[in-house]
From TrEMBL:
Keywords: Coiled coil. Residues 287-317 form a coiled coil. It comes from Lipotes vexillifer. This is Fanconi anemia group G protein isoform X2. GO terms for biological process: interstrand cross-link repair. InterPro entries: FANCG, TPR-like_helical_dom_sf. The keyword Transcription does not apply. GO terms for cellular component: Fanconi anaemia nuclear complex. Gene3D superfamilies: Tetratricopeptide repeat domain (1.25.40.10).
């Protein structure tokens, strides 16, 4: 007759524990098979099935009263479940914090201390559990593993104060006085798991390395942005020596290049940028930083080449690699910030950088072609929301049109410039008021764009230059006059110094046409303006106006006024 084991016996308990452990190990192996399947539907299905299996196993374990003998397995299942779920979701969610909390509460249930500690929240739970763990050494490996996941959650949500306190408690054998998170992570030593311990997707030691790398990189980037370059350099070196997957290493090397460039070590910076560009990865950030480096070195050819490569790199669709079914460094990094020096933007933003630098460096033919390509990108709807590069501040779409027109005129393509100007005017026709009431409308909060009138007047200015290039003096005077009329009516009192460029050019044109009465009236107005204090002499002009300024030859202004005064006096003498 077969012997039956009573349900409540220790043999039955051990049998269930073995079955639960086998189930955990089987699900971990299934997740690892999924990891090796690449980007495929089978991978997703295997991983999702493993996740649901771990969820069901956890419900089975937590459906029974908490027991010290079962807790190492239960906590390990919680860790595997959180790791797999966070990796599949590519981030941490609030309910994962609840899973951690439930695991801690189960530990305290075995010591009958739960009720007194619940009011202190998650931080209080951790203090209580780590205190209890000194009496339950068999729980230490699993608790440190769970603490690593708690640290990852708090790091990803910037709860650095809670993270510091947790690490101070974990490093109980070390000095608790330190508040240096990097040092605390380096001194944290998770206990080694037993050889017969349940399988884990990711052990505590590996998780510690991920945390150390992620925090070092986050801190280095923050110090770089705030200007604390020596500390940034130290933290970034720490990150580079850690568990860095290739995409993160590219970012770290690029940040090191930025830091060293700002510290005045361009050659060392270049070495890191070359290393970042090796192998197949995202090339945008290092190429943008290389262009900045060559600009600082005044190597225009290399700068332009880097920007051309940047445009090409951003035009290629990036096929992401299958993420590991683990907590990786990328999961713990902040979301991309447009203000970050590592943000390389979109293809249209890179194309704008290339076009504007060509225009600034006198490469008018190249600039014109790049601006036309950029306008084609913007107008075909492939990038409907063009926003300028954040550093330095760039233009909005109307100013891109204006710069394109300026580049075309500079390249001797006046007819194309007129076409661009006409397109801009047609697009702004519904926005521009029928009569110049810009500043009153701005105060009243009307919907017209605050720069609409200056854009329209600048368009007239550029059209005037285009007609001059085509030899059509009558049309040129008409456009210059419209520019001045709009500016004089729309500009507030005391702000007329941005209008003199168009005025001087109109004066030159009127003089060449021998239209003396109109030229004399304009000359008197310019004479009066030159006697006013020049408060805005250092005001930075938009690029399209800077380009116009080069055509007007500003050093000759005083000479022009003096020559005109002399010619008037000679006429009076006659």
């Amino acid at each position: 007759m077969a012997h039956r084991t009573p349900p409540g016996s220790s043999a039955s308990h051990a049998s269930c524990l073995d079955l639960w452990r086998e189930k955990n190990d089987q699900l971990v192996q299934q997740a690892k098979v999924a990891q090796d399947s690449g980007l495929s539907p089978r991978r997703q299905q295997l991983a999702q099935d493993a996740l649901e299996g771990l969820r069901g196993l956890l419900h089975s374990l937590q459906g029974l009263p908490a027991a010290v003998s079962v807790l190492p397995l239960e906590l390990t299942v919680i860790c595997n479940f959180i790791t797999l779920r966070a990796s599949l979701a590519q981030g941490f969610t609030e309910d994962l914090a609840q899973d951690i909390q439930q695991g801690l509460e189960r530990v305290l249930e075995t010591q009958e201390q739960l009720k007194a500690r619940l009011e202190h929240g998650l931080r209080g739970l951790w203090d209580s559990v780590l205190y209890v763990s000194s009496l339950l050494p068999e729980l230490l490996p699993a608790l440190h593993h769970l603490a690593g996941l708690q640290a990852a959650l708090w790091l990803s949500t910037d709860r650095l104060g809670d993270l510091t306190l947790l690490l101070q408690t974990l490093n109980v054998s070390q000095s608790r006085a330190s508040e240096d998170l990097l040092l605390l992570l380096k001194t944290w030593r998770p206990p080694a798991e037993e050889s017969d311990a349940p399988l884990t997707l990711q052990d505590a030691q590996n998780l510690r390395g991920v945390l150390l790398t992620a925090f070092a990189y986050r801190q280095g980037l923050r110090e770089l942005i705030t200007g604390n370059l020596p500390r940034a350099l130290s933290s970034l070196h720490e990150a580079a020596s850690g568990l860095c997957p290739r995409p993160v290493l590219v970012q770290v090397y690029t940040a090191l290049g930025t830091c060293l460039r700002k510290m005045g070590s361009p050659q060392r910076a270049l070495l890191y940028l070359v290393a970042a560009l090796k192998g197949e990865s995202t090339w945008g950030p290092p190429l943008l930083e290389a262009s900045r480096l060559y600009r600082q070195l005044e190597n225009t050819a290399a700068e332009i080449e880097c920007l051309e490569l940047l445009v090409e790199a951003l035009s290629v669709a990036h096929i992401p690699e299958a993420p590991q079914l683990l907590i990786e460094v990328e999961l713990l990094l902040p979301r991309p910030d447009p203000a970050s020096p590592l943000h390389c933007g979109t293809q249209s933003q890179a194309k704008y950088l290339l076009a504007s630098r060509c225009l600034q460096m006198g490469r008018a033919e190249n600039a014109a072609e790049h601006y036309l390509d950029l306008l084609a990108l913007l107008l075909d709807g492939s990038e409907p929301k063009f926003s300028p590069p954040p550093c330095p501040p760039g233009p909005c779409v109307p100013e891109v049109f204006l710069e394109a027109a300026a580049a075309l005129i500079q390249a001797g393509r006046a007819q194309d410039a007129l076409t661009v100007c006409e397109e801009l005017l047609s697009r702004m026709s519904s926005l521009h008021p029928k009569r110049p009431r810009l500043w009153e409308d701005a105060r009243r909060g009307t919907k017209e764009l605050p720069h609409c009138s200056p854009w329209v007047s600048a368009t007239y200015l550029l059209q005037g230059h285009a007609w001059v290039q085509l030899g059509a003096q009558k049309e040129a005077i008409s456009e210059f006059s419209r520019c001045l009329e709009l500016l004089f009516q729309a500009t507030p009192m005391g702000k007329e110094q941005g209008n003199q460029d168009a005025s001087f050019h109109l004066l030159q044109t009127l003089r060449r046409l021998d239209r003396r009465d109109e030229a004399t009236a304009l000359w008197r107005r310019l004479e009066a303006q030159t006697e006013l204090p020049q408060e805005n002499a250092a005001w930075s002009l938009p690029l399209y106006l800077e380009t116009c300024l080069g055509w007007i030859h500003p050093p000759d202004r005083e000479t022009l006024l003096e020559e005109f005064r002399t010619s008037l006096l000679e006429t009076c003498d006659l």
